[in-house]
Amino acid sequence: MIVGNGEVEEGRAEIIDAADFVIRFNECRSYGAGGARTDVVAVCNTGRPAKAMLGSESWRVHPGIVEASEIWSVRDPEKFAAMRGPLAVSHPELDDFCDDYTDQFSDFCAEAHKVHRVVDKRIHDAVDQALSAFSPEPYVVPSSGMIVIGEVLDRFPDDEVTLTGFGHVGWEWHPFAAEKQLVDSHIAAGRLRRLAGKPLVSSSQGA
């Protein structure tokens, strides 16, 4: 079960908590109404979202963060280091977007006795390639949710994967329209299924 930061419909919490494996994102805004079970928290490990999480004591003691046995950093440091130069030209306002906090998340996991995984740039590249089939508007990076979907489908190809809390809206430089089409294509192919929900917008560097 991959639980995005969109609103989760009433009555879904028990379904989510009954899953074998539950992934949430960043500040675990889905926690509570979207159930409590949390096996993995996938985080934006670069830029402002990473800095905000690591600098927040409330994030460190959030019950979802505490319960999670794994933290997944969704942005490969090598990939984002290579993006810094081109982004300085195309999006100078994103001057801190590629600032890398992967080591700090690794240190946090070591202290908290959690597994730390970094999603390989191979997944990011594969998602970009898959999105290209849907003629996306110019974008900076896929959303964390889309990267995690790519990682889960790659690592667990035979498992039943369910999404909820995905509204496909938010930060302007994610290709949300194309992401929705890609997700719908995975659903049509039987690789994903959805539980319904309403969007909750986030505008901070794709947090």
CATH topology assignment? sialyltransferase cstii, chain A
Number of domain units: 1
| Low-pLDDT runs | 197-203
Portion of residues within helices: 40-55%
Order of H and E elements: EEHEEHHHEHHEHHEHEE
Count the strands?
9
| CATH architecture descriptor name | Alpha-Beta Complex
Based on secondary structure, the structural category is alpha/beta
Mean pLDDT: 93
Distance between the termini: 19 Å
Global geometry? globular
Count of DSSP helices? 9
Give the biggest sheet: 4 strands, parallel
Explain what you see.
The protein is an alpha/beta fold. The chain has one domain (2-198): Glycosyl transferase family 29 (sialyltransferase cstii, chain A). Helix content is 40%, strand content 13%. It contains 9 helices and 9 strands. The chain has helices spanning 13-17, 47-54, 57-60, 63-67, 77-90, 102-112, 121-131, 144-155, 176-188, and strands at residues 2-3, 7-8, 23-25, 40-43, 70-73, 115-118, 162-164, 193-194, 197-198. The strands form 3 sheets. The protein has a 4-stranded parallel β-sheet with strand order 3-4-5-6, sandwiched between helices. Strands 1-7-8 form a 3-stranded parallel β-sheet, covered by helices on one side. It has a two-stranded antiparallel ribbon with strand order 2-9. Helix 9 links the parallel strand 7 (162-164) and strand 8 (193-194). Helix 7 (121-131) crosses helix 8. It is globular and about 45 Å long. The two termini are 19 Å apart. 40% of the residues are buried. Residues 197-203 have low confidence and may be disordered.
